[in-house]
Every structure is written in structure tokens, then in C-alpha cells.
Amino acid sequence: MIAPNFFDNCALVGIDVQKLGRRQHFKSTDELPAGWRKKGFAVADCNAAIDYARRVALPNVKKTVEAARQLGLPIVFIHWDSPSRDGIDVAPAHRQDLLAQLGGDCEPPLHSTPSATALRQQRADYVVLAATDQDAFTSSYIGLVLENLGAQNIVFIGGHAGAGGCLERTAKHAKQLGFNILCVEDATSDARQSARRQSILDTGYDHIVSTQQFLELAQHNPGHPLGGQ
């Protein structure tokens, strides 16, 4: 059961939501990122994940963000990025994958622009850049932001939800730090669709809800304009 006061001292954290739906289908195994090939990822599975991100996750991200706004929750977007042109400040293992994939030119995938229009990003939102490793707590100032906000509970959306992904590693670290964590599971994406749901179950969230369940929780919360109806 989710406590009625869960949304007190709570923040919504969206991880790499600007990338949902942006990737194109892979035509062959050779087009997969080097790290994915090493792990044996299948093209069909990765393409299914891309379709899910576009058709399901991104629309649900928008709904979740709008519901959080109605509750007055602080909204924090974390975007994986690198301040340096050649990715010298990126975690070494990932930099090597990028070098192998791009032949030494790291600039295109490391510098991204948040899709503020699609998410109706507002000036009151917080955008944390330069999360140069999957765990945002060790590679960005997200911890300071959450502390200054007085957050004790976190609603997580975004990607990647799979083992070793940005969402998974950041959520696990948040749990270790004592945050109560909730995942809106169909507002997440992963590199492989077949692994997404089980990875969410394995992460250790205190609560896992669907977008519809989140919207219902929000609407029945006293802090919502329609709370109690």
C-alpha cells in the first residue's frame, strides 16, 4: 500500500526522457552499439523496445509529468551529457564503447538537447546535465538538488530500466540513500523490451504502478486540485 502522504516531500525524476522515441530501428546486428553486441542483444528485441518507447512510454511520461505538475511536485529532468567535446569526462568503459562505435568522434551522442517542447518543460523545472555515468548520484549534482528540495520520496520515469542502465542504477542508489522510490513502470524504456519489466521488478522499488494507477493516486490526493473526487 502507498501511504496517503507519499506525495509529501516528493519529487518526480525523469531520466533521459529526451531520448525516448528518438532512436531509429536497427537494420542489422552490426548497427547495434558495441556494448549491446557483446551482451548478445537481438535486433528484434531492441527494435521492439524502440517501438514501446515511442508508442507507450513517451505518451505515459507526458501524462505522469502533467499529473505531477497538478500535485505541485518538483520535477527534475536528468540528461546524460558530457561537457567536453571528446567525452574525456565520461566513465571509461562507456567512452571506449563510444570510441569503438564512432571511430573516435564522440561528439554527436554525448551532446543532446532536451525535448522541452514534447514534455512541456517549464521554467520551474530542474534540468540536471552532465550525468556522465549511469548512476546520476555519482556523476551529477542530483543529490544536492533533492536535498535542497527536501525530497524523501521519488517518482522515477525514463530509461534505461535494465540492469546497468541509467534509471536502474540511479534508482538503486536512491534506495541505498534512504529514499522511498516509486516507478511508473509503463513510463519507462529499456534497450531490450523482453528485459524491461523483470529489470524493474529486480531494482527494488518500494512501489511499482502503472500510469493509470499513478493518475488515480494523484487525483485522490488532497494536494491535487480535484483531490478526493
Primary descriptors:
single chain, 229 residues, alpha/beta
Topology of helices and strands:
Elements: E1 10-15, H1 34-38, H2 43-71, E2 75-78, H3 92-102, H4 107-110, E3 126-128, H5 136-139, H6 142-149, E4 153-158, H7 166-176, E5 180-188, H8 193-203, E6 207-209, H9 211-219
Parallel strand pairs: 1-2, 1-4, 2-3, 4-5, 5-6
Helix pairs in contact: 2-9
Question: Can you offer a commentary on this structure?
Answer:
By secondary structure, this protein is an alpha/beta fold. The chain has one domain (10-219): Isochorismatase-like (Rossmann fold), CATH 3.40.50.850. The protein is 40% helix and 14% strand. It has helices at 34-38, 43-71, 92-102, 107-110, 136-139, 142-149, 166-176, 193-203, 211-219, and strands spanning 10-15, 75-78, 126-128, 153-158, 180-188, 207-209.
